[in-house]
Design a protein that fits this description.
This protein is α/β, with parallel strands linked by helices. It has helices at 38-44, 94-97, 138-141, 144-157, 172-183, 196-204, 232-239, 264-269, 284-292, 311-319, and strands spanning 2-8, 11-16, 26-35, 60-68, 81-84, 87-88, 108-109, 121-125, 129-131, 165-168, 189-192, 209-211, 222-227, 242-250, 273-276, 306-307, 327-329. Helix 4 (144-157) crosses helix 5 (172-183). It binds zinc ion (2 copies).
């Protein structure tokens, strides 16, 4: 089969590699579509410490069941359409056993620490494959993974009924979070992004107000602030817009060594709550459900997918900030 092989940071090729076969408890998925996300850029650049090289990246994907190991008891017929939760938790460490699997001491993930879905086929644990409802094509199915991260983020944040919200970042995650917030009964949501086209999409998806810079919101106060940029100065900026009693959700991925200057006096005196959200925790099935019920519509975020051979071009477009979400169709 053909696959993207990243031999070392900064160097990838479209390679001919052996077809995977299902190991015990596994299925092989023929990959219809796989999304490119910020983590893939970090893996490309050698900035994602858990990743070993060589590796085939790709963790946001959907496809069809192509082979099933003899010991698999889950009903996953050949040809069934699935989205795959890339999370691999050990199940026995202290955090897994206390229900915090996403913080697993032995954390691993398909496409991040082992070969993923920028390939025609990928072998995955059968339990990670979720059947997709009718009408969800491969590209929509590949959006389940980022949506599952957004669902976990909202669960971490807690109820938002009627709350005024400022959300920084109208990329894929910001726009998925926005739709969930609106569905969850949030008060007016203000979205901030530098890119006018993204703000136009945010408007379409339910933002009550948009701004191209945090400075435009001086004097306003919000009950909830969400960062979906990972840019430390932006996190400080949205935190600065919080009303007393406010809640800050740190969703975007900052550089590991970065810090913010949020005042501890303010956290104390204004009773500010700071919450983090990391990846997926039992939020994959709800994301499938939300997509199947059209409660969230990723379509305004999507560009036309590119073939595996154009992986480099897709990366270039992501880095150039063109479009919002890019996908590769490895098996086409
Ligand atoms: Zn991702
Ligand atoms: Zn664990």
């Amino acid at each position: 089969m053909r696959a993207i092989v990243l031999d070392r940071p900064g160097s990838f090729r479209v390679a001919e590699v052996p077809d995977p076969t299902p190991g015990p408890g596994q299925v092989v998925v023929r990959v219809d579509c796989c999304g490119i996300c910020g983590t893939d850029l970090h893996i490309m650049d050698g900035e994602f410490p858990p990743t070993p090289y060589p590796i085939t990246p790709g963790h946001e994907f959907a496809g069809t069941i192509a082979a099933v190991a003899g010991d698999v008891t889950i009903d996953l017929p050949i040809g069934a359409q699935v989205a795959v939760d890339p999370s691999l938790y050990c199940g026995y460490c202290r955090r897994c056993r206390s229900g915090r699997d996403n913080l697993c001491e032995n954390w691993a993930a398909i496409g991040d620490t082992r070969n993923g879905a920028f390939a025609e086929y990928v072998a995955v644990p059968a339990a990670n494959a979720h059947l997709l409802p009718d009408g969800i094509d491969g590209q929509l199915g590949a959006m389940v993974e980022p949506l599952a991260c957004a669902v976990h983020g909202l669960r971490r944040l807690g109820p938002v009924f009627g709350d005024t919200i400022v959300l920084a970042g109208a990329g894929t995650m910001g726009l998925l979070l926005l739709q969930l917030l609106v569905r969850a009964g949030a008060g007016p949501v203000t979205v901030v992004d530098r890119v006018a086209e993204r703000l136009a999409v945010a408007r379409k998806l339910g933002a009550a107000q948009v701004a191209s810079a945090l400075g435009d919101l001086d004097g306003e106060r919000f009950e909830v602030a969400i960062d979906a940029t990972g840019v430390p100065v932006v996190i400080d900026g949205v935190a600065g817009l919080l009303d007393r009693g406010g809640r800050l959700l740190v969703f975007g991925v900052s550089p590991a060594e970065a810090s913010i200057s949020l005042s501890p006096f303010r956290i104390y005196n204004d009773e500010i709550t700071v919450t983090g959200s990391m990846a997926i925790l039992r939020s994959f099935a709800p994301a499938v459900q939300l997509l199947g019920a059209s409660a969230v519509d990723p379509r305004p975020l999507l560009s036309a997918p590119l073939p595996l051979e154009e992986f480099g071009e897709a990366l270039r477009r992501v880095r150039a900030g063109q479009g919002i979400k890019w996908h590769i169709t490895p098996a086409k």
